[in-house]
Design a protein that fits this description.
The complex is a heterodimer of chains A (112) and B (115).
Chain A (H helix, E strand, L loop, with lengths): L3 E4 L2 E4 L5 E7 L5 E8 L3 E10 L2 E4 L7 E6 L2 E6 L8 E8 L7 E2 L3 E5 L1
Parallel strand pairs in A: 2-11
Antiparallel strand pairs in A: 1-3, 3-8, 4-5, 4-9, 5-6, 7-8, 9-10, 9-11
Chain B lengths: L2 E3 L4 E5 L4 E3 L2 E3 L4 E8 L5 E7 L5 E3 L5 E5 L4 E6 L8 E9 L8 E2 L3 E6 L1
Parallel strand pairs in B: 2-12
Antiparallel strand pairs in B: 1-4, 3-9, 5-6, 5-10, 7-8, 8-9, 10-11, 10-12
Classes of the chains: A mainly beta (112), B mainly beta (115).
Chain lengths: 112, 115
């Protein structure tokens, strides 16, 4: 089984809808991250969490919120989706900042 | 703050030829450096990382990178590429000792290996 799983893998939604992307990990890591990937822009950090009680904004947090339900679970919500949030979203985990970040397979989100 | 520049958005190369993917960074503090690879329709996986010690770092699949502090570079090399190396490659940096220790990614280089 994969160490980092993301659901759903693909989602098409309409402008104004609320949507939640979920991430689970079995690596026992404390640190979890949400990134967004757009062509030509690389990966940009949306939110990160260093433990269950620690949530921090990344460089592009506007329009997004997160919840760290447990050490192993970190979900990303779009309260009111808009078309420019169409992108590939990745969850990642790590033990310490010098450690490898392990990425999930990604969620392809399309907002119409 | 840190930043990463990958000047080449795409690098075409023939199979069995050598390749170099360029990465330059900017930081006011010392850094750790990483190269990740993303195969089509997959997430990212670590190729190699530089934390300290020898400036020549060897990674998986025959890749290596050299940290050059004076030129603020961390170029990735492979002496002979295969079709299976076709993927997007991302350089990333994290500043040492900062409050957040977040990875900053470059915009990626697509390595297109042709037969």
């Amino acid at each position: 089984d994969a160490d980092v799983t993301q659901t759903p893998r693909n989602r098409i939604t309409k402008t104004g809808k609320r949507i939640m992307l979920e991430c689970s990990q079995t690596k026992g890591h404390d640190r979890m991250y949400w990134y967004r990937q757009d062509p030509g822009l690389g990966l940009r950090l949306i939110y990160y969490s260093f433990d269950v009680k620690d949530i921090n904004k990344g460089e592009i947090s506007d329009g997004y919120s997160v919840s760290r339900q447990a050490q192993a679970k970190f979900s990303l919500s779009l309260e009111s989706a808009i078309p420019n949030q169409t992108a590939l979203y990745f969850c990642a985990t790590s033990g310490q900042y010098t450690d490898t970040q392990y990425f999930g397979p990604g969620t392809r989100l399309t907002v119409l | 703050a840190q930043s990463v520049t990958q000047l080449d958005s795409q690098v075409p190369v023939f199979e069995e030829a050598p390749v170099e993917l360029r990465c330059n960074y900017s930081s006011s503090v010392s850094v750790y450096l990483f190269w990740y690879v993303q195969y089509p329709n997959q997430g990212l996986q670590l190729l190699l990382k530089y934390l300290s010690g020898s400036t020549l770092v060897k990674g998986i699949n025959g890749f290596e990178a050299e940290f050059n502090k004076s030129q603020t570079s961390f170029h990735l090399r492979k002496p002979s590429v295969h079709i299976s190396d076709t993927a997007e490659y991302f350089c990333a940096v994290v500043g040492i000792g900062g409050a957040t220790n977040k990875l900053i990614f470059g915009t990626g280089t697509l390595l297109a290996v042709q037969p």
